Amino acid sequence: MGYLKTSSLLAFLASAASVAAHGHVTNIVVNGVSYRNYIPVQDPYTNNPPLVAGWTIDQRDNGFVAPDAYNAPNIICHRQAVSGKGRITVAAGDTVQLQWTEWPDSHKGPVMDFLANCNGPCNAIDKTALKFFKIDGAGLINPPQQTNQWAATVLINNGNAWSVRIPPNVAPGHYVLRHDIIALHSAGQQNGAQSYPQCVNLEITGSGTDNPAGVLGTALYGANDPGILYNIYRDNLNDYVIPGGSIISGGVSMLPQSRIQITASGSATPYGTTIRASSVITASASVPASSSVVVITSRSSSTISFGNSTSDTTTLIQTSTTAATTTITLTRTSSTSSSSSSLSSKTSTSNNSPTSATRTTSQTPLPTTFQTMTTTAPPAGEPTQNLYGQCGGMNYAGPTRCPDYAACTTINPYYAQCTPGPVPAGAQSLYGQCGGINWPAESPTSCVPGATCKTANPYYAQCTPV
User: Fold this and answer.
1) Cβ proximity of 202 and 125 under 8 Å
2) For bias kind Low complexity, which ranges apply (predicted)?
């Protein structure tokens, strides 16, 4: 029983880890407060994932929506999207930052944001009835193609983060923010564009009065639109048209992009409740040094302390790794009950680890003993799991061997996942560009083990699984 309670702690700790691939939004930052998003490669396998404002989506492969689905519901907020159960409050005129996992440099294209008024709470909205209006949208930077800079490149250069301003003239109410990157590296051929929509529920406050009409999500793009079916490998790209219609009055094409400093963590507000100041918990530099977090993976040894800033109560989680075995052991140093705890995160295995975080916990004391989970390396000849497929965890009986380009990474005691492994020197990562017309001679043309360089068109070749 105590072990199940502790699993929620592990799930929270694991949310600091990011999976590098095509990508998804991991967190949303408003006025320095960071809110966790739905994590599609983790939350489906986690007991009791946290309530968030981000929509639940079937994006376990970090994949995309293709143009042949642009007239179907999946384009609205991604595959099998279901509205989040919470919302984030933001004032009209405020800036919202959306933090992505690592975005590939080869996936050039536009970045756009839309709003849709739910005309009431958004948690049970019919997504097919939402009407979206565009509040920003940027495509090719400095056309014609002088620097090969696209909005997606700007996002990468900004630490894989994008900032959008909520127009100051928008009327107060409950809205869905739809954020999308369209990758155009294969868009010179039919059905080659890749759309990565992400949706977040907002409650907008302020004194604005505008309520733009908008269009249905299934009518935002067309498969043959000039900004969808488009060859980005030509010499002069002065004719690119950003998809999704015109930006409303009060919106801008693109804000000057810079990282917003995170000073606190917050939790989404559930629908049916009013917003209180206590829903945002400030994290400060005074968090005790003994309260430290290291993200658990199968490739590192780590120690995790979960402590109360006003007492000496701690729960210690230790992992040890050998070439064949990963062990997670949980112990407790005392049994003092606490209602709030502080976390500080430090790790050398994640580029996107938060500097600090805080969460409210149950007043039920944690037990003094925990179980130990051991994952053993698979024997030779065992079936291989797919990338991002499950490869371990308590009571798991499926394949534990990952492809050559991946490693089995522990997310929590119940779930381990095949994630991309280290890239050898001189090789290109999985799904990275490995050739094409004008591909620099000094750039990699070989791929990580288990992948091959596949030509998508004369201008673009990509490392794909064998």
Assistant:
1) no
2) 330-379
Strand ranges for 184-311 from DSSP E? 194-195, 198-205, 215-216, 264-266, 269-270, 280-282, 302-307
Compute the distance between CA of residue 174 and CA of residue 179 in angstroms, rounded to an integer. 16
Q: Give how far the C-alpha of residue 93 lies from the chain's centroid of Cα atoms, to the nearest Å.
A: 24
Residue 26, helix vs strand vs coil: strand
CATH class for the region spanning 14-282: mainly beta
First vs last C-alpha separation in the chain:
43
pTM above threshold 0.90:
no
Q: What is the pLDDT of residues 97-122, one digit of tens each?
A: 999 998 988 899 999 999 999 999 99
Distances 61 to 42, 57, 58, 67, 161 between C-alpha atoms, Å: 11, 11, 8, 18, 20
- 42-51, 90-99, 305-314, range with greatest mean pLDDT: 90-99
Per DSSP, the chain holds a count of helices (H) and strands (E) of 3, 30
Residue 31 has a CB neighbour count (10 Å cut-off) of 16
Query: Rounded to whole angstroms, how far apart are CA atoms 453 and 445?
Result: 7
Amino acid making up residue 124: A
Q: How confident is the model at residue 145 (pLDDT cuts 50, 70, 90)?
A: low
For residue 45, what is the DSSP state? Answer: G
**Hey, what are 450's tokens?**
């288990």
Domains of the chain by residue range? 14-282, 302-420, 427-465
pLDDT digits (tens, 9 = 90+) for 178-237: 999 999 999 999 999 999 999 999 999 999 999 999 999 999 999 999 999 999 987 777
